[in-house]
Amino acid sequence: MPEVVFSVDQAMSMRDQKVPGHNRWHPDIPPAVTVKPDSDFRIECRDWTDNQIGNNDSANDVRDVDLTHAHMLSGPIAVEGAEPGDLLVVDILDLGPVPQSQGEGSGQGWGYTGVFAKNNGGGFLTDRFPDSYKAIWDFHGQQATSRHIPGVRYTGITHPGLFGTAPSAELLARWNAREQALIDTDPHRVPALALPPLADNSLAGTADGETASRIAAEGARTVPARENGGNHDIKNFTRGSRVFYPVLVPGALLSGGDLHFSQGDGEITFCGAIEMGGFIDLHVDLIKGGMEKYGVTTNPIFMPGNVAPQYTEFISFVGISVDHETDTNHYLDATMAYKNACLNAVDYLMSFGYSGEQAYLLLGSAPIEGRLSGVVDIPNACSTLYLPTAIFDFDIRPTAEGPRKADRGQCAVTS
Amino acid sequence: MPEVVFSVDQAMSMRDQKVPGHNRWHPDIPPAVTVKPDSDFRIECRDWTDNQIGNNDSANDVRDVDLTHAHMLSGPIAVEGAEPGDLLVVDILDLGPVPQSQGEGSGQGWGYTGVFAKNNGGGFLTDRFPDSYKAIWDFHGQQATSRHIPGVRYTGITHPGLFGTAPSAELLARWNAREQALIDTDPHRVPALALPPLADNSLAGTADGETASRIAAEGARTVPARENGGNHDIKNFTRGSRVFYPVLVPGALLSGGDLHFSQGDGEITFCGAIEMGGFIDLHVDLIKGGMEKYGVTTNPIFMPGNVAPQYTEFISFVGISVDHETDTNHYLDATMAYKNACLNAVDYLMSFGYSGEQAYLLLGSAPIEGRLSGVVDIPNACSTLYLPTAIFDFDIRPTAEGPRKADRGQCAVTS
Amino acid sequence: MPEVVFSVDQAMSMRDQKVPGHNRWHPDIPPAVTVKPDSDFRIECRDWTDNQIGNNDSANDVRDVDLTHAHMLSGPIAVEGAEPGDLLVVDILDLGPVPQSQGEGSGQGWGYTGVFAKNNGGGFLTDRFPDSYKAIWDFHGQQATSRHIPGVRYTGITHPGLFGTAPSAELLARWNAREQALIDTDPHRVPALALPPLADNSLAGTADGETASRIAAEGARTVPARENGGNHDIKNFTRGSRVFYPVLVPGALLSGGDLHFSQGDGEITFCGAIEMGGFIDLHVDLIKGGMEKYGVTTNPIFMPGNVAPQYTEFISFVGISVDHETDTNHYLDATMAYKNACLNAVDYLMSFGYSGEQAYLLLGSAPIEGRLSGVVDIPNACSTLYLPTAIFDFDIRPTAEGPRKADRGQCAVTS
Amino acid sequence: MPEVVFSVDQAMSMRDQKVPGHNRWHPDIPPAVTVKPDSDFRIECRDWTDNQIGNNDSANDVRDVDLTHAHMLSGPIAVEGAEPGDLLVVDILDLGPVPQSQGEGSGQGWGYTGVFAKNNGGGFLTDRFPDSYKAIWDFHGQQATSRHIPGVRYTGITHPGLFGTAPSAELLARWNAREQALIDTDPHRVPALALPPLADNSLAGTADGETASRIAAEGARTVPARENGGNHDIKNFTRGSRVFYPVLVPGALLSGGDLHFSQGDGEITFCGAIEMGGFIDLHVDLIKGGMEKYGVTTNPIFMPGNVAPQYTEFISFVGISVDHETDTNHYLDATMAYKNACLNAVDYLMSFGYSGEQAYLLLGSAPIEGRLSGVVDIPNACSTLYLPTAIFDFDIRPTAEGPRKADRGQCAVTS
Hints:
Four copies of one chain form a homotetramer. By secondary structure, chain A is α+β, with helices and mostly antiparallel strands. Chain A has two domains: about 5-305, Sandwich (Jelly Rolls); about 315-415, Roll (Endonuclease I-creI), CATH 3.10.28. The first copy, chain A, is built from six helices and 23 strands. The first copy, chain A, has helices at about 60-65, 170-185, 210-220, 290-295, 335-350, 355-365; strands at about 5, 35, 40-45, 75-80, 85-95, 110-115, 135-140, 145, 155, 160-165, 225, 230, 240-245, 255-260, 270-275, 280-285, 300-305, 315-320, 320-325, 330, 370-375, 380-390, 410-415. In chain A, the strands form four sheets. In chain A, strands 2, 4, 6, 7, 8, 9, 10, 11, 12, 14, 15 and 23 form a twelve-stranded mixed beta sheet that branches. The first copy, chain A, has a six-stranded mixed beta sheet with strand order 1-3-16-5-13-17, with no helix packed on it. The longest helix of chain A has 17 residues, at about 335-350. Chains in contact: A-B, A-C, A-D, B-C, B-D, C-D. At the A-D interface, β5 of A face β5 of D. β18 of chain C pairs antiparallel with β17 of chain D. Chains A, B, C, D: It holds the Pfam family FmdA_AmdA.
């Protein structure tokens, strides 16, 4: 086990740690620690909500979650010698839930998947599922089961949802400008188009006074992926992956968290992975001048690991970019096509007895593949969703006899 | 080798075959042949353009292609006993290029990848690549190489681009209405938003007289994927796959073609696969009433085969839904995010000495994976592209030394 | 399709072809054709017995097979410029059954698996299964089913059982000496320990007169693998593989055949693969002086292809090197350990209703993995057998409820 | 993390633990703890030698190891309700090295691979490598590197080498009888044919007095695999595996240890895996009467997990059952065939600059596949070894240019 360079006491909020983390992106958040290139180290992480969600059978905590606290990140980690223009090479050596029992939060043997209500961020299928739902998952080594979604057990594609380097002041200003421009096109939309900087509940690491105030006023919210990495939610950032982040400020200032026990492509329920606190072991190194050398100027690149669970039999669902409610074509819209693929999968799973909500939570957390299959055949994009059959303890394949319908219970709902 | 129920003489146009195929969707195209459930059979196919593209070093034929002929489909195959509401179970037993030398067209030992000019349909990256380009691929068993893109050799994920059942008259009318509505939003756009029915060069199988005229006037163009299947361009329809098509008219009337030797997710160059004529062996069966039984009412579902080439090491590219030229956010637009992932991959390949056009053609035809990684993290969708490293005969990974830049020639361009 | 350099009319014996092949190893068999390095070509092959086995429900033909005809090889192919000490690089581009209906033999849509009687060669489990058995397999594209073993369907790991370069005269003499020495230790054993040269039914290509007589007298039998390659029966010589054969005589003189539609590790029934006639497409090249450069002096090396069918769930059986009948230890004998793993698998399959003979034929032809798991833990070697669960159309896994026993028919037996 | 039911203080010998384990098989070793069916729990383990090997650059400790202490097992674990004839279902949920720094032994961030000297057990290739050698491996998450074998990095196929249920008194007596019979055939052989019971350094858990003496006198040594499981050294017992052990005594009495960070098929150096102390999380359940229901009467069966590292490109080596030193045939001897495949791989690796000892240690610990490819082609068995190319940081494939020979240092040797 490598040295812990950012430690978390899971019994306390990130705000109360000896060295607190942060929940906004800003170049002036002071480094929590400095490491050398070519070194291994461990970072401990809170769950992304700072443990607002409990191991119980009500979705009220998901409905009432305060998203101004999110995402609680560990860091920043400064890397000696890193300069703008370099590539920061980050190897994901290992990650997992909280190794020792340190209280009751997610990551101590369990995690959760949630669907936010439409008026609190919503999810991918929020028009069909406008309320809040939750499923609790119990960890059994690398596998998870849920009392809220019986009949399914899967090996987690464990990965961090969010890691990134600090933006430069110039880049941060561009983010804020372009996102505000988007918000201004429909400022009262529910859910919102984007989230502007917000001082409420901002946490700026060890910064205080005027610096903390400036970070609170300017710091970018952590929800989207951006040029620095950020909330990628790429399920393929598994153990053994190597990520090449652009270095945008001296020292690179790497931060992250939002660990996921498992997630399919898309994290379709928004809070869709099996969320948990835990630890992550990293190795860092530098490619000097790598951004220009390799033409990596806009986004990180990466090489996935080779220990993700292997599945070879899938039921696959196709979606096209037609709004079938209104029979309207949306020109080459792969997002809508994937939405339809998801809805088709929900309908299929319901034919076996799951509720729509259970099916939705299952698709958000299971190791599904989501592919951009056709993006040029005007006017319809075609997206596909691959659901592994082996995660079910009953036969999920279509046969002449029809589906094995059964009472499959229900997930946690709001009261 | 199963019985050939639809045969093609590759020396002649599809129009001149003893039993011609068709290039529009319409319920009244007469079946070319009727088969029984639970039977194996072979269909022979022309390349999708009816062999307008030659094995040469000029992209002029791609620039000048007449798309009103496309796609040239083999069929319709009527299945005894199929009724609306059933699921037609189609096993893809085998497929491949033209087995015997029957002239000079694609599929006789070679295939092609093309990029259409912006004013003739364009491709996925048409703003950056507005002209026509072409690469010829030579087949070596299951592998392909190209004199136009040296340094790369890959095993094809052989699959049909286009198969589907005939739409009902009611569904066809809905297609025509909704696509016309889309066209009407910007009728003079280049490239067009969608393609309305077009009598020019329409081919209606063995229909003639008034029926043929009606089909020409009403028949849906074959470019997009729709509720009946159609031009899915899903690379995972490989040998061993089982597809469940909705049956919309008596007899199901299955048709298809557009065989691909290889293609990555997205078929990003539009004519992006390695295109070829060839054969496909199918087995068909029925699940009576299967559409309602399994909730498969909108699109086909399928189970992919297990003989696609296995790669385990990838360079992966991330894209987000920001127009980086103008620094503008596009709300959760996975299509734009994938476009950026593709452009990032192009830039990366250029650092090794490929031209942008070569890189684009390579990405369109190689066994790349394209995934919808994040579709809920407002405002940015995140898409990812996975390029297998093993297809290159040089080391394509990022290292401290920088890329091995070399002169890598050029693809076919227009004169 | 590359040029056919060795063609076979499947309606006739190999002996009656315009250019016949051979069934013994000898450096003086004249080349049937000469090819250039860096060229693609096709070879057509008879099934290994020269079509002695029929598509019927009796195992009498297997019982009565005349093995003096085997293996019927296509070749020799001389490679220009090949000299002793080189490595001959052979790419397996493609292979498959006979593409056109040319009569009735195996490879024309079907193949067979057989168990030889103990007094005619026997098989791996000949003490438990001393008689002859047979199963006929029908080909459906890349998959096979059998009326003799219902409930199972699998994708073939198609490969050639036997390819090799010609031995030098010196090496041939060593083979004959060392194998005779083994025979002499127990000359009347049934089955025999090894097979000495045999003039009866010897076929020496286009050689005649004294040369043919000498070849008949000295030529090594084709049954075992030896330094030149030979009857490897390695299931991983799949499409896309690259094999590096030692060159032992000028021109290399490559020959082969014994095509298999499918086979598990070990070819445990002796005639254990799904045997067929067919074609194979090769590319050849040379590494000059490669044997010494890479220390490849004893046996070929190879790189397997990446399109073998993928399975991820297995029932696995362990065997140790104890003769459980007599409770006797055999010191680190991996062969006996694998025999026990096979017998354990037979017993397991019988609990589901298969006959022992069916189970044996299934294991010989299905895509099983056989591994040398422990070879140093005195006194017991440990071998393991991995049976993919997905090839069964019923649930083959152990559960608390016990196995789903059913009447599963019977294979072809002798009358 | 599940409850620890067998804990180990890594600073002390297994003999000094509060509840010590054992190092012999005997039905009368008292259970250390009793668990319920359908429960999860953790067991902590010493390395198999009870930490006789140090993290240094001398192989003297391997040369001088006292094997009478081996294998140090954790347990026995009694399972409530288990009766002879049942199958004990054991899920391997997780395993790994010692999670917290508890001293200096193997498993605290490092492990070792060793070759024993011929006069102390020897290894698979002991005739060629009669001395002692060692390599130390550093753990980086799921990957390992070695200062003694530079140029290679691989993801571990982490697994337990040894688990089993207690033998019945009757079975134990049969073991002792049959192994003594083998020893008696050559009682002074070096290395020995088998190891009889030995009181020296015997450890019998919490047994004492006469019981401990009887266990010392009768207890079977732990080296081989036997009917109860035992020292399988099957690399495929990875996380997610489910093993079905025969229950031979009331309570089943499951014990195990000998954790491996990585190992190829065969554990060819004897002490061939990367050995470590650590932990293992298990779930147990029962199939009542399962031995007869499923015909599992001789050895355990198992279903491997699906998170082993995936490799798709291999250099493969063939061996046949000929002693090439003396040019002698060994009839269908797969063990000798695998020995030759290993020696061929050693020669190949030496062409790149590794010493023979380094190559041997590498093959013993890397994720190689070892297959029983042909076991019926008289007189030669054919075994194959698959070495993944991706574990090397240089190109290991054969090319026309010849191997990239370099100075690759040396492993630890004896002084």
